[in-house]
Structure prediction request, 253 residues.
Amino acid sequence: MQFRKLAPGILAAAFVISSSAMAAPVKTEAVITKVEGNTITARTMTGPLTVVLTPSTDIAQTSGLASKKTRDTKSLIPGLIFTVDGDLQGQTVTAEHIRFKEKDWRTAVAAKAGTVEQFSELRKAVIEGQEYIIREETAVYFPTGSAVIGATYKQKLREIAEKAPSFGNYRVSILGFADPRGNAAANERLSEKRAKAVSNFLRQTGYIQPGRVLSPSAMGEGTVAPGEAAPTGNDAARRVVVRIVTPKTQLTK
Prediction:
């Protein structure tokens, strides 16, 4: 029996046709576990899934039956439930469309516990993007080099914690700051300790559900909270800003 020897170009064409045949259209729901650049690691009911984003991937947030808002990749965060459709090869989908519900995005934001950088992006989306409205705000001030909450400020924190549930679908934003003296890296660590101390105290008051407290953020020195006036001196710079926020679409007071 004789076998014909195929030319390299024919072999290449055959490989492309074979690879294309392996791809199948799919639409599935999953939850994001990790985001790295244009690759999303997710999990479906049946197992792990990798989602690859391309420049033509259409990403949108839905609210109700007809409302749709175009979003970018920064909206795709761990914990978000989403629907993807595209071409499936093995356990990898090249996404054509990604859709997620507004309420699921808010839930993912509220449950987020990641790095300072990740939380900073979320904070910007939540507050600077006006997704949320500030309902109550207070500041806790600290002595030089300290992360210990004074008695006066503990009382203020109890008061704002007790009031928080009255706003319905609330979240608690906690931003820690330091004055500009000393080493910048040390000041950032100190601002983180202050933010965590306030977060822990609020959780321990018994008034606030832990899942409604956003991960405390270390803002370091020389920065301000969105919409906040710049500190007038070092005493005012050593602070933690606590805000009770609610979705701008919320109708309750």
The first helix runs from residue 8 to 22. The first strand starts at residue 24 and ends at 36. Helices lie at 8-22, 102-111, 116-128, 151-163, 184-204, 234-237.
